[in-house]
Amino acid sequence: MHQGACHCGAVRLTLPSTPEVATSCNCSLCRRIGGPWVYFEFGTVAIEGHPDSTEDYVQGDRTLRTIRCRHCGCVTHWEPVEAVAGARHGVHLGNFDPQLIASVRVRKFDGADTWKFLEE
Ligand SMILES: [Zn+2]
């Protein structure tokens, strides 16, 4: 199992499986908070310390809630504002073991403009 945490450890995440591909996005939010992101079905990522130790940010179209630790400020994940069937979680892979980060293939996603991957 892959376990990660924010810098201070107040928010801890356990992934349901080993990610092989991650997404680096250039949208107005992701270019600021980084990534890369890995995605899982909503509810399958075990998260401790949330919402007790977290704050969130809901951006323009109000579909996603971006979650950060209220103590150290690190962004840990995002979740759908509405947990509809098929909804996904995004997990900020930067909170995990550097070896895991290095093992994952990162694809660049043009979230700022075309909503397409910029490379295969
Ligand atoms: Zn923290």
Automatic annotation (TrEMBL):
<protein>
    <submittedName>
        <fullName>GFA family protein</fullName>
    </submittedName>
</protein>
<keyword id="KW-0479">Metal-binding</keyword>
<dbReference type="InterPro" id="IPR052355">
    <property type="entry name" value="CENP-V-like"/>
</dbReference>
<dbReference type="GO" id="GO:0046872">
    <property type="term" value="F:metal ion binding"/>
</dbReference>
<dbReference type="GO" id="GO:0016846">
    <property type="term" value="F:carbon-sulfur lyase activity"/>
</dbReference>
<comment type="similarity">
    <text>Belongs to the Gfa family.</text>
</comment>
<dbReference type="Pfam" id="PF04828">
    <property type="entry name" value="GFA"/>
</dbReference>
<dbReference type="InterPro" id="IPR011057">
    <property type="entry name" value="Mss4-like_sf"/>
</dbReference>
<dbReference type="InterPro" id="IPR006913">
    <property type="entry name" value="CENP-V/GFA"/>
</dbReference>
<feature type="domain" description="CENP-V/GFA">
    <location>
        <begin position="2"/>
        <end position="120"/>
    </location>
</feature>
<keyword id="KW-0862">Zinc</keyword>
